[in-house]
Specification:
Elements: H1 3-7, E1 15-17, E2 37-39, H2 47-51, E3 59-61, E4 81-83, H3 91-95, E5 103-105, E6 125-127
Parallel strand pairs: 1-2, 2-3, 3-4, 4-5, 5-6
């Protein structure tokens, strides 16, 4: 799949699965105003692409994405679930998570040692097994 093809997806699209797509890293889907779920697990997605995700997103899978670290998704006010297990995400990105989040998976995230989730007033579940979190 090419970057051009992704950029031309119709606005009505509600779900995208780009799992294991290693040939795409930066793309713009901001125009997909109906998009609810995106699966980019094990892909080459970058922080820049994530920063341009549409506000409509409710679920994001970034499991095992090694090219991400400090993305900012604070603008995703409808986001309920994010899965970042085994990725290279850092505490900086977590500090910018939207308060709408209910579920966070950080299992196996070696680059996370400290982060602040006090602002996540709707958080119901967090998974941090196998991470580098310290007290």
């Amino acid at each position: 799949m090419s970057k051009a093809a992704i950029n031309n997806f119709p606005e009505s699209l509600e779900k995208i699965n780009l799992n294991r797509c290693q040939n795409i890293s930066a793309f713009n889907i901001h125009h997909l105003v109906s998009l609810k779920e995106i699966d980019c697990g094990r892909s080459s997605i970058t922080d820049a692409a994530i920063n341009n995700f549409p506000q409509s997103l409710e679920i994001i899978n970034l499991n095992y994405c090694n090219n991400i670290s400090t993305f900012n998704i604070n603008h995703l006010v409808n986001l309920k679930e994010i899965y970042c297990g085994g990725s290279s995400i850092t505490g900086v990105a977590i500090n910018n998570f939207p308060e709408s989040l209910e579920i966070i998976n950080l299992n196996g995230c070696a680059n996370i040692s400290a982060f602040n989730i006090n602002h996540l007033v709707n958080l119901k579940e967090i998974y941090c097994g196998g991470s580098s979190i310290t007290d």
